[in-house]
Design goal:
The complex is a heterodimer of chains A (about 325) and B (about 300).
Chain A: E1 2-15, E2 18-31, E3 35-39, H1 46-53, E4 61-70, E5 73-74, H2 80-86, E6 91-94, H3 98-101, H4 108-118, H5 125-138, H6 144-147, H7 157-169, E7 175-179, H8 187-204, E8 207-212, H9 215-218, E9 224-229, E10 232-238, H10 239-244, H11 249-257, H12 296-300, E11 306-309, E12 312-314
Parallel strand pairs in A: 3-8, 3-9, 6-7, 7-8
Antiparallel strand pairs in A: 1-2, 1-4, 4-5, 9-10, 10-12, 11-12
Helix pairs in contact in A: 4-5, 4-7, 5-7, 7-8
Chain B: E1 2-13, E2 21-33, E3 38-42, H1 49-56, E4 64-69, E5 72-73, H2 79-86, E6 89-92, H3 106-116, H4 122-135, H5 152-164, E7 170-174, H6 182-199, E8 202-207, H7 210-216, E9 219-224, E10 227-233, H8 234-239, H9 244-252, H10 289-293, E11 299-302, E12 305-307
Parallel strand pairs in B: 3-8, 3-9, 6-7, 7-8
Antiparallel strand pairs in B: 1-2, 1-4, 4-5, 9-10, 10-12, 11-12
Classes of the chains: A alpha/beta (about 325), B alpha/beta (about 300).
Chain lengths: ~325, ~300
């Protein structure tokens, strides 16, 4: 069953020099209780996609076109009141930098309780408090009862991220959007947080949209993965398939350039050139100026994301050719 | 080339209402770096790795210990002689967005060091800037542009060009690729390696990313809570890590091959650093009574490998 369906999403920024499209015609869907990952480098539009799903893009950000169906309701056309019922309640969100998304003048506990009261998932404050403490315990915060009264600045980065997760989960969402949840954290903590998210996903049977730049984080965690480049999805398939046999030259390059800790190589593989800037995209395929197998057609015509096999979509004229 | 002896750095926090507190950022850290070699310094945030890097360049005062550069204690130098040494050691910072002055052109940024040290005529300096830009893989037309016109990876190249403009012998690389995307990361690492081969630079490479460290370092030091807990040459350390923390660190690195490396014995919580005993004790699955009372000292396991843990 499809839980979330993003269709032809086009979003970007309105600037004084005209509008710039950052996310261009992105479509994907997330099934019930699966982890779906959106992977890409900075500036590829993955965060804008996440913010668009919850209609959280604030000016100058703007959604130009597209539909976002959550349980058959188009989130982009319903009124604010209904949208507020869904955001935070049915769709929870965890952001990259917990310190800038937690309110510094309220305790962790107050912020979790506020969410539950707002969405009326509890009858009264004492019940909310009890529930908040149990969630804090569930996400692995020691002395949860004491931590309930802690302010964000009293907690470490990992603890803050755990609190954010507790908050996002406090209303039993059906979809959790995690935007680079561990990028600001140390590796050992990253591992803990990722394991926690994975356990909670299984336990609560929710779906997770995991947004990350780190391809290795996705391995064995996400069922399906979509790779974004310069505002477009270039490849989408099951995670094992993608890692085993990437078809798009960009995906191949990305996988090759991840340094392998178990080996020592003389020279690391790197993709030549730099990511194009929104508004100054190359003609034809957006990867053509960095692609080692690009030919004339790539510079003239833009490839579309097509089904190659069932469950596998690629946007490349030479899909499958090795770089 | 560089020898540090028991370097220690405490920060004193204090104020009106707050109790005076001492932060032990770096404690008794000793190591040496041979000429033409890369020493990797690994640790989590707050482990004291950046502080160590800065002390090596005398960018901050020292609480105790000595830093010898080519046999000279750089903390004993007066400002004039220090300037001569400064020329021989340089640094590349983590964030290429804040380490380049936005009001200066690339040419001004790269030639500033040469002007300060009175090297060459203006013409010679301009030639050198162009040559450096070529060396780090940037177009020579970049010279008259401003930092904001470049991407993160390109900015880091500018920062590298600035660092090597004085032909230093020793360069501290403080998380030079952490702010960059993977595909760009590899470009910068390869550039740094090439430069080292050509010019015989000595590097201190500070990073929290173990995979990256492995690819560039000859020797590695692992720090935890301001202390060195393990050091050894790169291959030894990665193939047979000794300290429980190093093991945890290595197993936490996500790999494209999935989670096969993972060990699950470690308690899944975070805790404060204890005041006495081994700093890692609260997170250590092998913690013994002794670990809570005494701080373990470094012991050599082989000529190239030492560890600070009571297990050994």
């Amino acid at each position: 069953m499809t839980l979330l369906k993003v269709e032809g999403l086009k979003a970007g920024f309105e600037t004084t020099d005209g509008s710039v499209t950052v996310v261009d015609d992105v479509s994907f869907d997330i099934k019930e209780s699966e982890i779906f990952a959106l992977v890409g480098e900075s500036g590829c539009g993955k965060s804008v996609t996440a913010y668009s799903i919850l209609n959280l893009l604030s000016p100058p950000g703007k959604i130009f076109a597209g539909h976002i169906f959550f349980q058959n309701e188009d989130l982009l056309s319903i009124d604010l009141k209904r949208l507020n019922d869904i955001r935070g309640r049915k769709i929870g969100m965890v952001f990259q930098e917990p310190s800038s998304f937690l309110n510094p003048v309220f305790t962790i506990g107050e912020q979790i309780v506020e969410t539950m009261i707002f969405h009326k998932v509890v009858q009264n404050i004492s019940q909310a408090k009890k529930k908040a403490i149990s969630f804090l315990e569930r996400v692995g915060i020691p002395f949860a009862e004491k931590r309930f009264y802690s302010y964000p600045h009293e907690l470490s980065g990992g603890m803050k991220q755990r609190s954010m997760i507790a908050m996002a989960l406090s209303c039993n969402p059906e979809l959790l959007i995690a935007d680079e949840p561990t990028t600001a954290l140390d590796v050992t903590v990253q591992e803990q947080i990722m394991n926690l998210l994975e356990d909670l996903q299984k336990e609560l049977k929710m779906s997770v949209l995991l947004i990350t730049h780190n391809l290795s984080l996705v391995a064995e965690r996400a069922e399906r993965v979509a790779v974004m480049y310069a505002g477009k999805i270039v490849e989408e398939t099951k995670t094992e398939l993608l890692l085993e046999k990437p078809l798009h030259p960009y995906t191949q390059g990305l996988i090759k350039s991840v340094p392998d800790i178990t080996l020592k190589e003389k020279k690391l593989y790197s993709i030549p050139g730099v990511v194009p800037v929104p508004g100054k995209m190359p003609q034809g395929c957006r990867f053509s100026n960095r692609c080692p197998i690009a030919s004339d057609i790539c510079k003239k015509k833009e490839p579309v994301l097509e089904n190659i096999e069932s469950d596998r979509r690629v946007a490349c004229f030479f899909a499958g050719e090795q770089i | 080339m560089i020898v540090t002896e028991n370097i220690t750095k405490f920060f004193h926090l204090g104020g009106f209402e707050r109790k005076k507190k001492i932060i032990r950022a770096v404690e008794n850290v000793s190591f040496n770096i041979e000429k033409g070699e890369t020493l990797g310094l690994v640790g989590e945030s707050g482990s004291g790795k950046t502080t160590t890097g800065r002390i090596l360049l005398r960018l901050m005062p020292l609480t105790a210990g000595r830093v010898l550069f080519d046999g000279t204690d750089i903390f004993k130098l007066n400002s004039r002689t220090l300037k001569l040494y400064r020329r021989r050691m340089q640094i590349v910072f983590q964030d290429p967005y804040s380490s380049l002055n936005p009001r200066m052109t690339v040419k001004q940024i790269i030639s500033e060091g040469m002007i300060i040290h009175g090297i060459g005529t203006q013409k010679e300096r301009t030639d050198k800037v162009l040559k450096l830009l070529e060396t780090v893989g940037l177009d020579i037309s970049s010279a008259n542009k401003y930092p904001h016109e470049f991407s993160g990876g390109q900015r880091q190249r500018i920062a590298i060009a600035r660092a090597i403009s004085l032909d230093p012998e020793f360069v501290v690389l403080d998380e030079p690729v952490s702010a960059l995307d993977v595909s760009i990361q590899a470009q910068i690492i390869n550039l740094l390696k090439d430069l080292q081969q050509k010019k015989n630079f000595t590097y201190l490479f500070i990073s929290h990313d173990l995979a990256v460290v492995r690819h560039i370092s000859h020797k590695i030091i692992v720090m935890y809570a301001g202390r060195v807990i393990e050091k050894g040459d790169s291959d030894n350390l990665f193939t047979s890590p000794l300290h429980p923390y190093t093991k945890l660190l290595l197993s936490s690195v996500p790999s494209l091959k999935g989670k096969s490396l993972k060990v699950n014995k470690y308690p899944d919580t975070e805790s404060d650093i204890p005041e006495k005993g081994c700093a890692f004790a609260p997170r250590c699955p092998f913690c013994m009574e002794r670990c809570l009372k005494e701080t373990p000292q470094e012991i050599s396991i082989s000529p190239f490998h030492s560890v600070a843990c009571f297990i050994y």
